[in-house]
Structure formats: structure tokens, C-alpha cells
Amino acid sequence: MLERLRAEVLEANLELVRQGLVLYTFGNASGICREDGLVAIKPSGVPYDAMRPEDLVITDLDGRVVEGALRPSSDLATHLVLYRAFPSLGGVVHTHSRYATAWAQAGREIPCFGTTHADYFRGPVPLAGPLPAGDIETGYETNTGRAIVRRFSGLDPEEFPAVLVDGHGPFCWGASAAEAAHIAVVLEHIAHMAYCTVTLNQGLAPLPAVLQDKHFLRKHGTGAYYGQKKESIV
Fold it and tell me: Which of 36, 60, 156, 226 is catalytic?
């Protein structure tokens, strides 16, 4: 079932390893087949180097396992909340990458200090949470997703393709599992540069809004002109 999606999600998980964003069994990537309403996600606690496509777990959007002998990632419920809330998402990635997680643990959004950041996010990387005790004790993973959705009230998830969860770490997304993994890599790079920036100049203001918008909009939206048109690439 969903062999192509399984292969794509496995590759996204392995990309997290190749890029140094996960240690041991930390983190997870998933992808969704919107037509079938089914999600493929990394199994819980399985080392990346031992995973095969058939090890990925297939669930419906209510978290019921449709196919797979292993338990799905413990973060499945968070992924499912995001898929239900944001119809444009095709993949979700969660890591504990060093610098992005450091900002989350500090309870700080990542300000947009430069154009590399602005190429991917139309403003600071948002921070969600913290969760109240009751939301941690019962339904923790689902409530984590709900906290993210609440934070995105008034925000476009396509303009802000990642979030930091207070005290926890980043969740990233995109139109596919591969794109979500790409965003996770970029986010870690941005988080590292922002850390270096505030270390060198603690009082630095964010990039002017006009420059932030220029860099974001030249890569995204109807007026984008960065790169090549698909039909012009041979």
C-alpha cells in the first residue's frame, strides 16, 4: 500500500540523518496521501539505519493503523492535527536539531536578521506554547498540535513553514515529505546564523520589513521571479 509515499517518507527521514539533524532515534518525518486520507510515518524508536520502506506505518487521519506491524511515532498525533488543520501540507518533519531546539528551549522566536531567513519565512519563526499542565498530562501530543494551530491564527503556514514549540523543538512542513525535510535543514541553518548574530550584536534590530518582503516575494507567490520556469528547463 502507498509504496511511492513510503519511499518518499523513508528518504525524508534519512535526509534528516544525512544532514545531522537527528541523533539515534530522535525525530520523525511523515507524508500524506490526500486522495486516500492516509499518512505514512516513521515507526517509534526504530534506528534510521535499520528502517525499510515496509517498516513505515500507515494510519488514517484519526490515527488508526491501516498497515504496519510496528508502532507509529509517538508524535503521530501532532502530525495529524497539522494535516487536518492545514490542507496544503503534504509532509511534516519534527527534529531536535541543536540550534533550532536551543531557540525553542529559550522560549524565543527566531528574528529575521538577514535575507537567507527572509527567503523562506515572511517574518520571525513563530513560537508556540508553553502548554499548561493539564494539556501535558492528558493528550500531550494532540495538544501540542493544537497549540501550533492556535499560534497560526492569522498566519499562513505556507509563509511560515515551521514553528518552534516552547521547551520542545521544531516542527516543519511542506508540500511533500521531501520539502518538509528541506525546510528542517534550512531552519537549522537559519537558527545557527541567528544565534551567531545575537552573540555578536545583542542589540541588533530585525531586517527592515521592506527587505524581508522583497526576498520572500521574489521566491514565493504569483509575482515570484527567482529561479527558472519549469517549462524552460530541459
Answer: 226
From 119, 135, 140, 213, the catalytic residue:
119
Active site residue 135: no
119 included as an active-site residue = yes
Q: Please spell the DSSP secondary structure of the chain, one letter per residue.
A: --HHHHHHHHHHHHHHHHTT---TT--EEEEEETTTTEEEEPBTT--GGG--GGGSEEEETT--EEE-SSPBPTTHHHHHHHHHH-TT--EEEE---HHHHHHHHTT--B---SHHHHTT-SSSBPEE-PPPHHHHHSSHHHHHHHHHHHHTTT--TTTS-EEEETTTEEEEEESSHHHHHHHHHHHHHHHHHHHHHHHH-TTPPPPPHHHHHHHHHTTSSTT--SS--GGG--
Return the number of other C-beta atoms located less than 10 Å from residue 219's C-beta.
Answer: 13
Under the banding of pLDDT at 50, 70 and 90, the label for residue 221 is confident
Name the band, by pLDDT with cuts 50, 70 and 90, for residue 231. Answer: low
